């Protein structure tokens, strides 16, 4: 998930993981395209995105 | 009106002051076929930004697995990440280190950055004058990046020489290329045993990350690791070196009036950084290769055409920035905050193009700004009231069309 308040719109997640992240409708924040993690590949993308996010806005959560 | 002569790019007048040339191109020939250098030139802000964003049509690398160009062969940096263009492998390699240059990884490193500035200032002693380029700017960023890599501190003077040789090697002049290749040979020999050691004794540094990273069960070859180190030393050392010198040049000579504002309010160094990156950034141009035939402003660029994006021309586009040829740290039409690779900002203001945009956006952007601002603030604290030692300065110089012309002053004497 993305914390909208911490998103600095760096674009790192969108450029690195185009199938998993995109801009929100009004372009004011990044959002997760596939919020339910299905399999290892999604998890890897999520974790990598969380690691390189300059705003520390992305987190991978259980539930 | 005289036809535009592309030989201007090879003349000294362009090295000294490229902006009249940029203006002519941007206003009259926004998509220009330069037959002399066998390339296309794009120079308006909107068009440069669009090309940076269109990573599908404009690739960074000449290299293709099935192409004619042999990987790593033509470059003094050796095989390096940029030659992988827009591939998944590039993405993977970039992200091995990218997160150390931003956010928490960078924050954890700031005490080291501060310590290195202190050491250089201590070394200066009690004299109340300083030549900034040789004492600080060429010494400081290279020590930061080599420290981050985890290289031996006693070898720092060698790294200072090597990174300058590598950058010289980007020149088209034969003797400069030879200088770059000589440094490359020395570095390749030097780094072999260090890489072996890190494979056996991992540490908490970038070099360990480089040797340990795996893609599909395979780690990088020694040559790839060496190429990566060379790129980090050259890019991390040289560009921030010149950024610091350029910021100080503009404060000492271009806007001494605004330097007074900065001395009174040191956080304004952030604005000096952003405006320097717009007005006359270290890197003026980036090269791309078309992956398909593409139309820009009614002109058709063929597939695999070389395209020069003159981002420094775009940065002076009057359609985007009012009074673009004036250096102004208080301008209200430029995003002054941290840069990003998407070029979308919450402020809705346009950003400068100095770090590129998109896939190949400078991964050291945050670290470069931090280093430049931290060092500049500390220097003013030390000096109190710095001013130019000489009333006149020859100005910034750039290099060659094929390297983007890294812009910097030869020397900068300050007294206080």
Describe the structure.
The complex is a heterodimer of chains A (63) and B (416). Chain A has 63 residues and is an alpha+beta fold. Chain A has two helices and two strands; from the N terminus they run αββα. In chain A, 30% of the residues lie in helices and 10% in strands. In chain A, a hairpin with a 6-residue loop joins strand 1 (21-23) and strand 2 (30-32). Chain B is α+β, with helices and mostly antiparallel strands and 416 residues long. Chain B has 15 helices and twelve strands. Chain B has helices at residues 12-16, 19-28, 45-53, 88-97, 103-124, 132-137, 140-149, 156-168, 174-200, 206-212, 222-254, 256-264, 269-279, 311-314, 365-383, and strands at residues 31-34, 39-42, 58-59, 129-131, 214-215, 218-219, 285-290, 294-296, 299-301, 306-310, 387-388, 413-415. In chain B, the strands form four sheets. Chain B has a five-stranded mixed beta sheet with strand order 1-2-10-7-3, with helices on both faces. Chain B has a three-stranded antiparallel beta sheet with strand order 4-12-11. In chain B, strand 1 (31-34) and strand 2 (39-42) form a beta hairpin. In chain B, helix 5 runs parallel beside helix 15 (365-383) and helix 11 packs across helix 15. Chain B is globular, with a radius of gyration of 21 Å. The A-B interface holds A 8-12, 14-16, 23, 27-28, 48, 51-56 and B 91, 95, 98-99, 102-104, 338, 340-346, 358-359, 361, 366.
């Amino acid at each position: 998930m993305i914390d909208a308040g911490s998103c600095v719109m760096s674009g790192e997640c969108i450029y690195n993981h185009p199938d998993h992240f995109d801009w929100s409708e009004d372009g004011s924040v990044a959002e997760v395209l596939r919020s339910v993690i299905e399999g290892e590949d999604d998890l890897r993308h999520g974790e990598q995105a969380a690691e390189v996010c300059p705003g520390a806005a992305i987190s991978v959560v259980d539930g | 009106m005289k036809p535009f002569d592309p030989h201007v790019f090879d003349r000294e007048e362009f090295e000294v002051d490229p902006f009249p040339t940029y203006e002519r191109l941007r206003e009259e020939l926004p998509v220009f076929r330069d037959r002399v250098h066998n390339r296309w030139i794009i120079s308006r802000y909107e068009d440069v930004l669009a090309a940076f964003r269109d990573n599908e049509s404009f690739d960074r690398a000449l290299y293709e697995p099935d192409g004619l160009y042999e990987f790593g062969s033509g470059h003094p940096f050796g095989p390096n990440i940029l030659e992988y263009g827009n591939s998944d492998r590039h993405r993977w390699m970039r992200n091995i280190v990218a997160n150390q240059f931003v956010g928490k990884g960078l924050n954890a490193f700031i005490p080291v950055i501060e310590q290195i500035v202190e050491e250089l200032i201590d070394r200066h002693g009690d004299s109340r004058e300083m030549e900034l380029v040789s004492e600080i700017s060429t010494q400081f960023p290279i020590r930061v990046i080599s420290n981050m890599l985890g290289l031996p501190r006693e070898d720092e003077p060698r790294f200072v020489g090597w990174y300058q040789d590598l950058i010289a090697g980007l020149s088209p002049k034969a003797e400069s290329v030879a200088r770059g290749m000589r440094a490359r040979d020395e570095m390749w020999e030097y780094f072999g045993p260090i890489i072996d050691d890190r494979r056996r004794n991992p540490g908490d540094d970038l070099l360990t990350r480089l040797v340990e990273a795996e893609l599909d069960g395979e780690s990088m070859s020694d040559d790839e690791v060496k190429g990566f180190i060379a790129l980090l030393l050259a890019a991390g050392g040289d560009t921030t070196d010149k950024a610091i010198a350029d910021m100080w040049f503009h404060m000492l000579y271009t806007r001494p009036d605004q330097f007074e504002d900065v001395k009174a309010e040191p956080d304004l160094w952030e604005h000096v950084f952003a405006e320097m990156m717009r007005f006359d950034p270290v890197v003026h141009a980036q090269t791309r290769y078309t992956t398909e035939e593409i139309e820009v402003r009614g002109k058709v660029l063929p597939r695999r055409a070389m395209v020069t994006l003159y981002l420094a021309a775009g940065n002076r586009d009057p359609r985007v920035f009012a009074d673009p040829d004036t250096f102004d740290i208080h301008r209200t039409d430029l995003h002054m905050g941290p840069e990003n690779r998407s070029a979308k900002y919450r402020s809705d203001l346009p950003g400068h193009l100095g770090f590129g945009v998109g896939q190949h956006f400078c991964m050291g952007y945050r670290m470069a700004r931090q280093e430049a601002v931290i060092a500049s603030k500390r220097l003013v604290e030390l000096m109190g009231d710095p001013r130019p030692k000489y009333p006149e300065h020859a100005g910034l110089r750039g290099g060659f069309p094929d390297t983007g012309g890294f812009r910097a002053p030869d020397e900068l004497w300050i007294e206080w």
